[in-house]
Design goal:
The chain has 79 residues and is an all-alpha fold. The chain is built from 5 helices and no strands.
Length: 79
């Protein structure tokens, strides 16, 4: 296996940072002008369904931590 294939990307990798920025830009550009059904919660759920972790989603959405997006991803249990 070549060295290039075995090298993993790190969160601080310039390519990863650029992709995060592009995803954030796409989300921002596609936000509706009026407050419609699309929101940060919808964006978080879409990104989660694409396999991103809450930490990665928080970074893309400009939140401080994963707990800021967890409320969009996990519903509270009702008893």
């Amino acid at each position: 296996m070549s060295e290039e294939k075995s090298k993993k990307r790190t969160p601080n990798d310039p390519i990863v940072e650029r992709l995060d920025a592009l995803i954030a830009l796409f989300i921002e550009v596609n936000k509706p002008k009026k407050e419609e059904k699309f929101s940060e919660a919808s964006a978080a759920r879409i990104l989660n369904s694409a396999g991103l972790t809450p930490t990665e989603i928080a970074k893309i959405l400009g939140k401080k931590s994963r707990t800021d997006v967890a409320k969009y991803l996990y519903s509270k249990k009702t008893e």
